[in-house]
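pasting for the record
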Amino acid sequence: MKLIDFAKRAQFEEKQGFLIKESNGYNLLLNELQVGYVSYIVVLVCLDKAITKEQVKEINQKVGTKRISFSGKSNSVLMFQFDDLFGPVKEEKVNKAIDNLSTFTQVLAAMNLNNQSKCIFCGQDKEDEDVIFGNYNGLYLPQHESCRQQAKTKAVAKMNQENSNTKMYPISILLAFGGAFIAALIINILTYFVFDGTMYAIAYALVPIAAFFAYKLGKAPRNKKMIVSIIAASAVATLLIDIIFLYIVSLGYNMSFIDFLIENKTAVLGNEGMTLLFLAIGVWISWNIITKTNDSDVRKF
């Protein structure tokens, strides 16, 4: 079922680019969750405090579902995922989803889990300024305009300060290579000595992730150059580790490294091709992490 079709059926309204509905005093945000190539309809609600796993389990039991979970670093955002609304949907499933939404907010109210109503930046009430709801990091949240502008100014200043630190590029790139090299070394050790030569594509996501966090240690600007540097460092480090391991293997056959490569050319090329393919998959898996540039905090506003 299309998001806009469910929005109309469930009486969500568009506000500032969001699909919003107030239910039992709670602001519900309708959105889509991309899981691989599949999009699920989800509803998000922001609470005024963090909740526990036990409370989430209780909410699921009372609503009669298993698809309500945490969303967000603060554990104060609940996400209700509607798996039954994927693809062609029968009328009764749509009605059930709408009823479950009402039950969801009733359960929250009964458990004294309140809607976020104070400014997300200062957490205070101001006599001379009302709280308004607006976008922050893709959520519809209460905020004072003055607090919002102050936070945005700080984020821009931080970004500009980091962007001026271009002299740290060589150090960050070197650190990125070192992080990727260590991760690739660990993967190869596990592949040859633990998994009997079996390669796992998901493990290669560790290489660009390690390169990303190592790059950050150098304090160079986190921009598009960083993304290129991380991918390049990951590829070079991974191939270098493969070459080192092939050299070690050639010693076991009492052959020169060049002769070993020539004699096993097909196998070596196949292995390196598979390594690069798995690394590409690893980059795809880790893409949301390694592309966190220093303007991400600014783009939250």
